[in-house]
Amino acid sequence: MADAAPRLHALVQQLLGAPFPVRVRAWDGSLAGPPDAPTLVVRNRRAVRRLLFKPGELGLARAWVSGDLDVEGDLYQALDLISGQVWQRDDDARTLTEALRDPGFRAAVRGLLRLAGPPLPPAPPREEVRRTTHLHTRRTDRRAISHHYDVGNDFYEIVLGPSMVYSCAYWESADSTLEDAQRDKLELVCRKLGLTPGQRLLDVGCGWGSMAIHAAREHGVSVVGITLSQEQAAYARKRVADAGLTDRVEIRVQDYRDVADGPYDAISSIGMAEHVGADKYLEYAGVLHSLLKPGGRLLNHQIARRPHHDETAYEVDEFIDAYVFPDGELAPLGSTVTQLERAGFEVRDVESIREHYALTLRRWVSRLEDDWRRAVRLTSAGRARVWRLYMAASALAFEQQRIGVNQVLAVRPPPSGASGLPLRSRTWN
């Protein structure tokens, strides 16, 4: 008798103590739940075992990456509905100890155990990397960066498009092209930094070289771009050579802590500081401060989380830490500004571009879905599923103000105290 889906749907509702707002299709072909909702496809009993062994985000991620779970219908809607039940903040949800005092909760767990059946939960998918501590040494940072960025340049070309910019674009409108929006972001950074011909720019976390090439070609500066990814560096060097800019752009595989050829007139750090870590952030800010000439500008483009609990603490996301950005940590904006100021910077401008990242991520998801088979061939089915889930869930997080992204412009004050910025600095010249 095909009844796995009704049983599963009822048990999940009993476990949550609330309606489960998505439809469920189980391995026996049965269906249960709201008929107009997106469908959560539970392909086998192994998915249930994964969720029982690791309730919440990590269990769902393991089942998704391994292909034990899938979604039919609108992925964004499904994630939005499920997140309201699963990804609750700790202070809004019962602890497991409290939940186990509830006879109904215990009965639901026993029912799910019977439905899941033996044996013990399988090993995590091979795409998973686990960290027990966030050391942020040169070696561990290099390994973490390699896990994320050395997936294959061809794969990133599918997701990012010709611009090869892996950070939030800057949209004139939702109808703009991704390439135009990324060009506008690079130009915005250059204008905030006040770049002029002959200056030296350090691009920290240079990726595939897009910022370095744009700044050298459009603003006549000399650029040193640094990355910890060998694949990125090789790709960026080829792009620099193809653009005829080898006399003005140097790409290095180098840790920011090892740069010793300052001073620079300006520093850009776009989507890199999330990798630095709480314990190393003041050191990061201090190193960049020491590499700038007096009066030089820093543009720090960084994702931030909303403050709660300890407002200075950094936050680690289980799924992202295990599959996407090992050792990545998000801090509130206020903590970032404080650390920059402690290092000696004067923070002159903060611009939130949260909505822009949601638009960017949705475009990346569309590009991945449109070329799905090739993406799987270039990496693996699990890796492609990681990126699809990560980017779609992140788009919702930006839209719902659970995370944000900010461009912080800071200056290393000269002895005179003159910042060098125009009186109306939002003109960025």
TrEMBL record:
Its EC number is 2.1.1.-. SMART domains: PKS_MT (SM00828). One of its GO terms (biological process) is methylation. Residues 155-391 form the Polyketide synthase-like methyltransferase domain. It comes from the Bacteria. Residues 116-137 are annotated as: Disordered. Keywords: Lipid metabolism, Methyltransferase, S-adenosyl-L-methionine, Transferase. InterPro entries: CFA/CMAS (IPR050723), CMAS (IPR003333), MeTfrase_dom (IPR020803), SAM-dependent_MTases_sf (IPR029063). It holds the Pfam family CMAS. It is an enzyme of class 2 (transferase). The keyword Cell membrane does not apply. GO terms for molecular function: methyltransferase activity. Belongs to the CFA/CMAS family. PANTHER family: CYCLOPROPANE-FATTY-ACYL-PHOSPHOLIPID SYNTHASE. This is Class I SAM-dependent methyltransferase. It comes from Streptomyces galilaeus.
